[in-house]
Structure prediction request, 146 residues.
Amino acid sequence: MYTVKEVAKMLDITEHTVRFYTDKGLVPSLKRDKNNNRLFDQDSVNWLKGAKALKKAGMSVEAIKNYVDLCLKGDETVIKRYEIILEQKDVALKKLEEAKEIAALLEKKAARYLDIINQEMPDHMNPAKWGDNNNKNEKEIEVIPK
Prediction:
């Protein structure tokens, strides 16, 4: 059996996160000692690993709880769990595309900064200068999308 501290270290998450996940019902196999301290067996650790992975994939705690509840119902929920994973994969792929767009924009901005450093173009990147009459190309400045 493992303590909160040991599990947190093992999974590289905070003790607070371990307690939070257990309080939210994401570790159905959780045991407690006579003093009501949380104790984790390998099954409990596995539930935490799964919750950590789904959270890292962008799922909300509520969605993870729903997924856990479906898992507990057994094989009859395999299709629903599969659909949840496919939906989350689509979310992750969308985030990946957004990250690629941001990386491309930053690459373009870095190239512009090199041009400024090499005195091949004036500094159009500085927002403090965007109102200057000398900075007529401020419309070509791109901002990182939200």
User: Anything to note?
Assistant: Residues 122 and 134 are 9 Å apart (CA to CA). The two ends are 44 Å apart (CA to CA).
